[in-house]
Amino acid sequence: MNALSLYNFLRRLKAFGRFFSISRLLVAAFALAILIGCVLLAAPSSTADTARPASFLDALFTATSAVCVTGLIVRDTGNEFSLYGQVVILILIQAGGLGILTFSNLLFLFRRGRVGFRDRMILEQTHGLLPNVTPGELLLRIILYTVVFETFGAVLLTWRFALDYPFSHALWLGIFHSISAFCNAGFSLFSNSLIGYQTDPWINAIVMALIVCGGLGALVFADFGLFIRNRLRRRRARLTLHTRVVLLTTAVLILVGATTFWLLEWRSTVPAWPDQRFLTSLFLSITARTAGFNTIDMAHLTNATLLIVIFLMVIGGSPGSTAGGIKTTTFAALIAQLIARTRNRPRAELLHRSIPDDVIAKAVTTTVGFLTVAFLAVILLQVTELAGEPHHLHRGVFLDYVFEVFSALATVGLSTGITGDLSSAGRFVIIACMFLGRLGPLIVASSLIGTRRQIDYTYPEGRLNVG
Fold this sequence. Notes:
467 residues; mainly alpha
């Protein structure tokens, strides 16, 4: 190879690297994982009945739901998939739950010193950043926390399931549900999810703990680790604002959600005994924001309860976690901005700290993008599912379709039971929602638009009457 050929090759390689920005690589990686999962799940060996393998659409839907850690299903995971198929689903869940974090960190490591502002913004949106913690250190901590929590969860769940099943089956149940819960995937090997363990405090407590820990995000635990280490060394230490806001917002949402469900379902489907009623309400409050497990039939809940569940699903978990939604910190920033305006304060404030205007702008953009996609998806689902039908005769199922869209877009996985009845076009709508919800509409849009040069000028200001 002469010097000119080498120069041209290096130019093409550089152009290739510019084209595949971090956002595009993330989208491509998830799409590839879904495609591989689809091929594996469509094989006859993946189903319990090899004579009835999963169709391409069923395999695609299941693979997307697993990689995007959603939990919506069109086939019974425990009964219709073989052990091989269940292992494939579990690997897809682990790859989707942990993969977006480790993959973004690895890209940061490989491209250290060449990460621009846009890429850094994408990384911060996908997993966040901590001061004084390198991406390599954060990567190791993410893996460590994942292994520790999933291992402890598997051991504790196996011990309980062993009371009802042979040890080998109980071990598989424990491993599967531990990983599914920590990754906030919501996949279960039971046909009715965890309804059979509705009043079991051990199963409820372990699953809820795994869901919450997975939804808090690795940044929170990394910050806790630094805090404890500095305290042991008698250094001055304080949790970051991010950690404090995440913990406070999460606690408030869980308690408010559980209390609301407890009141709304007082005379409905929730068990009659006070301790069981609150346990069920608490589980629903936790799982509604991200996980997808259920201990009650969602189709039997009141409309008011379903609307509150949708609200919690929109908020979701926290940045850097396996959860979906707009995130707890985004919600907290929006509330802080609202309070600041009502109090005539110049800037939003949280826990005695002023929030930068660019953070508020990002929170507004994220929320608007999320709700815009949800609005369009609801319209598409109405068109695909009620084509040629008199819509006035189907008003009663409108909330079911809205619930399904928000559950998919927030990667929650709860359903009122209509998932399996969706048309082929409707399933593609839900598949798109799960994909957009896992990566985030902004990342997908950034991958499509590409890199745009920052403009250094602005137009003159103009006044606009709003409100």
